[in-house]
Design brief:
By secondary structure, the protein is α/β, with parallel strands linked by helices. The chain has a single domain, classed as Dihydropteroate synthase-like (TIM Barrel), CATH 3.20.20.20. The protein has ten helices and eight strands. The protein has an eight-stranded parallel beta sheet. Helix 1 packs across helix 2, helix 3 packs parallel to helix 4 and helix 6 packs across helix 8. The radius of gyration is 18 Å and the shape is globular. The structure holds pterin-6-yl-methyl-monophosphate. Pterin-6-yl-methyl-monophosphate (PMM) binds next to strand 1 and strand 5.
Length: 294
C-alpha cells in the first residue's frame, strides 16, 4: 500500500514555493502563546512577536513558523478568535517584510486567514485529524502542507504512547493520513511528512524515529523533524551526566540532533535557536557530500 497505491511517485522533491538552498532547511519557531513548553509567554504580544520573527529571519531561518496555540502535553485548546488574533497580524507583517512564513495550526479557518495574510506553508501537527475541513482547505489554498504524526489532543496525548515497532506504526498511520489528504484533493507533491517527536511518544520512541528516518523516507515524501528542546533531549543529557537541563538549556544538544536529522535525510528541521542549527545543517551537508563521493 505504501507509496504506490495512491498513484503517487515514490519520491517527491521539496514542494514548490519554498526556499531551495540545497541543504536541509531550518524553520525558526515563533510561538505567539502564553503557555508553550519552552518559550511560552516570551513572544505573546504582536509587536514583540513580529520583531522576534524578523530576528529569526535575519539569523538565517529559511522559514518562520508562527503558532498561536500551545501543543505542549496537557495544554488546553484556545478559541478560534484568540488563535486568529495571535497569528494573523504576525503572519501579515512578516510576509510583507519578505519572510517565508508558515502557520502552525490545526484549524482550517486559521489556514484560510493566514494564507490570505501571506503564509506560504501550513504546518498541521494533527495531520488533518483535528479538523475534517483541513484537507479541502489546504487543497483550495494550494500551499505546501506539513502532515505530522498525531494520535490525540495535547491534554491526553501521553496516554496514547503505545507502539509495537514505532517506526512501522508511525509509517502506517501517516500512510492512512496520506489517503485522506488525497481524498480531500491535496496534491501529493505539496505534502511534507513529520514523525511528530514528543507527540504521544516517550523518549525511546523519539530516538527510534530519529534513527529510522531512512525507513520513513521510503514513504516517498520530504521529512520535517521537530526535535527542538524536547523531553527526549533533556533525558539524554541527564543520562549523559548533565543532570536536569531545562528546555532553554537544550539548544546545543538540539543543534547536534539537527545535524543527525540532516545526515539522516531530513528536508527541514524546526528549531528555536536558528543560528546553531543552521551551522549544524551546513556541517551535515558538507559531510554527506563527502560520504557520497567515497
Ligand atoms: N512540535 C511542536 C509544535 N509544532 N510542528 C511540527 N511540524 N513538528 C513538531 O515536532 C512540532 C510542531 C511543539 O514544540 P514547541 O512547543 O516548542 O513549538
Amino acid at each position: 500500500m505504501e507509496g504506490v497505491a495512491l498513484g503517487r511517485p515514490r519520491h517527491h522533491g521539496p514542494p514548490e514555493g519554498l526556499p531551495r538552498p540545497g541543504r536541509c532547511l531550518v524553520m525558526g519557531i515563533l510561538n505567539v502563546t502564553p503557555d508553550s513548553f519552552s518559550d511560552g509567554g516570551v513572544y505573546a504580544d504582536t509587536r514583540h512577536a513580529i520583531d522576534r520573527g524578523l530576528d529569526l529571519a535575519a539569523q538565517g531561518a529559511d522559514i518562520v513558523d508562527v503558532g498561536g496555540e500551545s501543543t505542549r502535553p496537557g495544554a488546553r485548546p484556545v478559541c478560534l478568535d484568540e488563535e486568529l488574533a495571535r497569528t494573523v497580524p504576525v503572519v501579515r507583517e512578516l510576509a510583507r517584510a519578505g519572510v517565508c512564513v508558515s502557520v502552525d495550526t490545526m484549524h482550517a479557518p486559521v489556514v484560510r486567514a493566514a494564507v490570505g495574510a501571506g503564509a506560504r506553508l501550513v504546518n498541521d501537527v494533527s495531520g488533518g485529524l483535528a479538523d475534517p475541513a483541513m484537507a479541502r482547505t489546504v487543497a483550495a489554498a494550494d500551499v505546501p502542507y506539513v502532515a505530522m504524526h498525531w494520535r490525540a489532543p495535547s491534554r491526553e496525548m501521553d496516554r496514547h504512547a503505545h507502539y509495537g515497532d514505532v517506526v512501522a506504526d508511525v509509517m502506517a498511520e501517516l500512510d492512512a493520513r496520506l489517503w485522506r489528504l488525497a481524498e480531500g484533493g491535496v496534491d501529493p507533491a505539496r505534502i511534507v511528512l513529520d514523525p511528530g517527536l514528543g507527540f504521544s511518544k516517550h523518549p525511546e520512541h523519539d530516538w527510534a524515529l530519529l534513527a529510522g528516518l531512512e525507513r520513513l523516507q521510503t514513504l516517498g515524501f520530504p521529512l520535517l523533524v521537530g526535535a527542538s528542546r524536547k523531553r527526549f533531549i533533556g533525558a539524554a543529557l541527564a543520562e549523559g551526566g548533565a543532570g536536569e537541563v531545562p528546555p532553554a538549556g537544550r539548544d546545543v544538544a538540539t543543534a547536534a540532533v539537527s545535524a543527525l536529522a540532516a545526515v539522516g535525510g531530513a528536508f527541514c528541521v524546526r528549531v528555536h535557536d536558528v543560528r546553531a542549527s543552521l551551522d549544524a545543517v551546513h556541517m551535515a551537508a558538507a559531510y554527506v557530500e563527502r560520504v557520497d563521493r567515497t
